[in-house]
Amino acid sequence: MDFFDRFAIPHPSLAIYASMVAIVLTVIAIVVGLTYFKKWGYLWREWLTTVDHKRIGIMYLISALLMLFRGGVDALMMRAQLAVPENTLLDAQHYNEVFTTHGVVMILFMAMPFIMALMNFVVPLQIGARDVAFPRLNALSFWLFFFGAMLFNISFVVGGSPDAGWTSYFPLAGNEFSTSVGTNYYMIAIQIAGIGTLMTGINFITTILKMRAPGMTLMKMPMFTWSSLIANVIIVFAFPVLTVALAMGTLDRLFGTHFFTTNNGGMDMLWANLFWVWGHPEVYILILPAFGIYSEVISTFARRNLYGYKSMVASMVIISLLSFLVWVHHFFTMGQGALTNSIFSITTMAIAVPTGVKIFNWLFTLYKGKIEITTPMLYALLFIPLFTIGGVTGVMLGMSAADYQYHNTMFLVAHFHMVIIPGVVFAMLAGLTYYWPKMFGFMLNERIGKITAWTIGISTLVAFMPMFFTGLDGQARRMYTYSESTGFGPLNMVSFVGAIGLAIGFILLVYNVYYSIRYASRDISADPWDARTLEWATHSPVPEYNFAIVPHVKSEEALWDAKKKRHILFQGNYEKIHMPNNSGVPFIMGSIFFIWGFALVFSLWPLAIIATIGILACMAHRSMEIDHGRYISVKEIEETETKLRGAK
Amino acid sequence: MKELFPMKQILGFVFSLLLTVIALAVYFLDMSFSTGMTILLATAFIQAAVQLVVFMHAGETKDKGAIYTNVYYGVFIALATVFGTLLTMIWGYN
């Protein structure tokens, strides 16, 4: 039995045992359900082996919503624990595990896949391509992300959660202070998901540079595609730093090296440094595609072309450069001198300039527009004031001298939530609502959607504004409780109410999906929002080949000008279309990566070696494989097109 | 005949051998650590540039713009990261 002792949880509680039972029951239910409804073949053929960018996008979307639920439950547990002083709902260790998981899940396994979902679904359609440049690689990216996320998610029931914070600073994250396997999970699960993200970056840069429709020059690309291009460039340059840092951390923890230790020539601060060399650009990887969504939504529903297209592009390019020059502002108090801190203070404040340019461009787009307030537009309009609160408090934190006051308090926590929630989450919900008809062929209910948007908007303020005040009064982040005499109690209770509001917002979102599946009309046009860009020029839901005829683009707003200025998008006759074949290898390789990661977490060397051979075998198989793809015949295209047109 | 003779590649090959010899000299000649490192870094960067331009044909296709933008961007970020880290952790550390 000694062998199995390592899988035990070092710090169990009733909630964890209950979760174990729930996980087992869910897995059984899924397996039984799939068998009963005879869906295994369907699942394998249509989803697990797919290389279609639209289906991969939808799988990213489902994963992101699941992870939003998981991270949200963690958030509720934390807010419940802090709602009253001297609470005993969670103990210190459990609280550490919960905030660590919350951070990692929300950033890496919720926000990232949400963005990947929209990028996967929208970018090839916006540029008039049939798929991404490397469809098979795209599937592999998804499965690496997915299995990385799953590996991280089983940590709390097998071997123990990581508990050193989502930043996992050494020496706390080293073997001396983090004795459970939790931090191994952190290092290896994020590594696997990170490799997937890096591949996505390469894939999308190539796609956007090489696969645009004829006539679409770089300066005629829709703004979301531009923002995706820049975000992917940042991915390709930032993620290798994370890969290296995680590899060094893994070596420290598993093989006794001394990169980040405090003795034998190790440098613990180097972890913080490397983490944020990746971590700050990561913030812009998240926010730029979100900005792209807002640009699309605002110009569609203000019924105007986007104000200052060139300045939008220029500001994103400048942001992409500046994002690599500010990372030290995450640890102003680590002990570097005043000169260093001043340099990074200035670069930090400089980044507010291009961001401000973008905000003003949106405001000028709205100015004199015929504004129509739909759900996506409502999110965009709520975003502007709320994000500004997060933004200006960020400038406060960016002043290194003042930062000594704010550092590691709830003020910081309030700041980054007020940036990420209105910035990224609202954008993703706006994008979800906006692109829903393109993905599934029916619209989400507008009335429930608007109630959801208002609930989430107001709850965000209620949940996070009180933290600014308790933070300035000295409430530290990551403290599992506080005494009554601090006076933090009432404001934390308000914050808890806000957290419940956000949970209600999430439930409303899910209810909206359910309601719309049941009642929404399927009889909608391909362009229900009267939008401006190419993705709305094809059918909803989109056929496998995206466009029966490759569109010819003459302007920035191809579809709008086709509608208003009679530009002809599609000319010529149907021709047979070359498409990639499905493949099970990405899924299998992802599964082997999962086993490999699990073996490394628990130092099961024979299993790790076998899994490594398996990974290499998959790569060798791919190298030897001859697969020229397949053709869709003209007859098949005609049939599909007639059917889709008939449905309208 | 002149078009067929790969003058650029041969000169590039000689130049890259020369750079290797200079780098090798750091081991055989007696010099301070910082001088040696400076020579190694300089020859390494020049060597990489020679390989990229002469033997990997950067700048010979119509992707020239994208390739060079990418390279400059990468060099900028590498230098910013390395010198920023040195500034933070060594030179500017109290």
From TrEMBL, chain A:
Keyword Transport recorded: yes
Gene Ontology molecular function: copper ion binding; cytochrome-c oxidase activity; heme binding; oxidoreductase activity, acting on diphenols and related substances as donors, oxygen as acceptor
Cofactor: Cu cation; ferriheme a
Residues of the Cytochrome oxidase subunit I profile domain: 38-554
Pfam families the UniProt entry points to: COX1 (PF00115)
Function statement: Catalyzes quinol oxidation with the concomitant reduction of oxygen to water.
Protein name per its UniProtKB record: Quinol oxidase subunit 1
UniProt gene name: qoxB
Similarity field: Belongs to the heme-copper respiratory oxidase family.
From TrEMBL, chain B:
Location within or outside the cell: Cell membrane
A Pfam entry, by short name: COX4_pro
One of the GO BP terms on file: electron transport coupled proton transport
GO CC, one annotated term: cytochrome o ubiquinol oxidase complex
Keywords, comma-separated and alphabetical: Cell membrane, Membrane, Oxidoreductase, Transmembrane, Transmembrane helix
Membrane-crossing residue ranges in chain numbering: 35-59, 71-93
Protein name: Quinol oxidase subunit 4
Lineage of producing organism: Bacteria, Bacillati, Bacillota, Bacilli, Bacillales
Gene responsible for this protein: qoxD
